[in-house]
Amino acid sequence: MDQNKTFDAIVIGASAGGLYAMINIFKQLPANYPIPIIVVQHRSKDERSLLEEVLQQKCSVCIKQADEKEVIAGGCVYFAPPDYHLLVENDGTFSLSFDPPVNYSRPSIDVLFETAADVFKERLLAIILTGANADGARGMKKIRKLGGTTIAQQPDTADYPEMPKAAINTGAIQHILTPDAIGSFLRECMKNNTVW
Amino acid sequence: MIDNEEYRQFLESVRFVYGYDFTDYAEASVIRRIRAFMESKRVGSLKDLGRMVLKDEAAFEHFIQDITVNVTEMFRDPFFYKSLRKNVINRLATYPFIKVWIAGCSTGEEVYSMAILFREEGLLERTVIYATDINQDALQKAREGISSINNMKSYTENYLKAGGQHSFSDYYKAKYNSVLWDKSLRQNIVFSVHNLAMDKSFNEFQLILCRNVLIYFNQALQSKVIGLFYESLCSFGFLCLGNKESLLFADKRTCFEEIDKKEKIFMKTK
């Protein structure tokens, strides 16, 4: 099983309904969860940090907005800031861009997924959650092509099933799981990563 | 797939042949833009792209305009403009003559926003705004001062949130599906090509705006460009960066004081 692989990073894409799915997943993780988790949640550009604050109250793992040039490290869940794309650089840092929206979205899941695939290749785990559009599908294809592991939220557990469905329809998804099962999967993965 | 070594070589060739230096740009963004260009032109590999642009100056020109264009909007981050009104304008008003540099102005939305703000604060008559960008096509659009009418709803909302004192429609004329910014706003604006990665300081300013440009540079180039801004500011001049940008990687960071931490407004104090 893929839980036995060693992952350098986990990327997650979420849109409408994402908050509850993420609470169910992240509340299962310990504060020192060793694998860095990087999330694009579609959000309003007028909202500055409410998402992180709400999630932090429910989880023990550290939740923060990714900073420009920040070094990606374990023990943290990083969120793309509102109205910026979040990209992963080759040297293991973040960069931001204000390029036009992709799939009508900024931040866009595809932008994160595609750049993370370039850097982490087969040592990347990607998860697509609830949402009402098709962002992330193209990124999932690329991640799979480069040997990464792919998970979609089981569509009938999603508030908005279109996004996981779109990813599943690309044929690139290996596991279809409920949010609870995704949380257990992440805990299993932890065993193969030495705590930093 | 773009191989890292190939990418470095391509950038070196571009620098050697045309003098454009992208080697200190944040890679992930540049690669995304190059890929998008290659897809649109149906170019299969970076080698083919090299063959296409390195020998054909017109093709290169097209390429460079395509990958260096940035997007922007009128009164983007309205609270930044509100903070300018509150924290900066009264100090600028003490100068008999004000020079502003908007670095990386792209298609000019920020330039016209500033012109509107300066007019409402009664300073536009004695201000010159130097608006520069690396991208000539974008600058041409900025000079023309035309925008799509579809943007006006969100621009009007931004304008009001930014503390706008009039009706936003006072500042443009609409025809067909476009709007033309009021020509009198443009009287004291100088548009010119300037490459932040290569070019030097060209004047002394009381205010420099460079928002959401540094995010495309690596730490070394960020520090170099902040150094350029430092040289180009008068004592107690103001530097404004984008919301997610900082002076963290700049050698000159200790020479600035924070005026508004959230809106990234700094004052040169040393």
UniProtKB/TrEMBL annotation, chain A:
What molecular function does GO assign, one term?
A: phosphorelay response regulator activity
Coiled-coil segments on the chain, per record: none
Instruction: Give the UniProt keywords, A-Z.
Output: Chemotaxis, Hydrolase
**What SUPFAM superfamilies does UniProt report for this protein, alphabetically?**
Methylesterase CheB, C-terminal domain
* Residues the record marks as active site: S15, H42, D135
CheB-type methylesterase domain location, by residue? 10-193
The source's domain of life comes to Bacteria
Q: In its UniProt record, which GO terms are filed under biological process?
A: chemotaxis
> Pfam families of this UniProt entry?
CheB_methylest
A GO CC term assigned to this protein in UniProt: cytoplasm
- Reactions it catalyzes: [protein]-L-glutamate 5-O-methyl ester + H2O = L-glutamyl-[protein] + methanol + H(+)
Hydrolase as a keyword?
yes
Q: Look up the EC number in the record and give it.
A: 3.1.1.61
What protein name is recorded for this chain? Answer: protein-glutamate methylesterase
Species source reads Niastella caeni
UniProtKB/TrEMBL annotation, chain B:
Q: Per UniProt, which keywords does this protein have?
A: Methyltransferase, Transferase
Q: List the InterPro entries hit by this protein, alphabetically.
A: Bact_Chemotaxis_MeTrfase, CheR_C, CheR_MeTrfase, CheR_N, SAM-dependent_MTases_sf
What are the CheR-type methyltransferase domain coordinates in residue numbering? 1-269
Q: Which GO terms describe its biological process?
A: methylation
Respond yes or no to whether keyword Methyltransferase is given for this record: yes
Q: Which domain of life is it from?
A: Bacteria
Q: Is ATP-binding given among the entry's keywords?
A: no
* SMART domains xrefs: MeTrc
Pfam family for this entry, one: CheR_N
Q: Name one GO molecular function term.
A: S-adenosylmethionine-dependent methyltransferase activity
Task: Please give the name of this protein.
Answer: Protein-glutamate O-methyltransferase CheR
Species source reads Niastella caeni
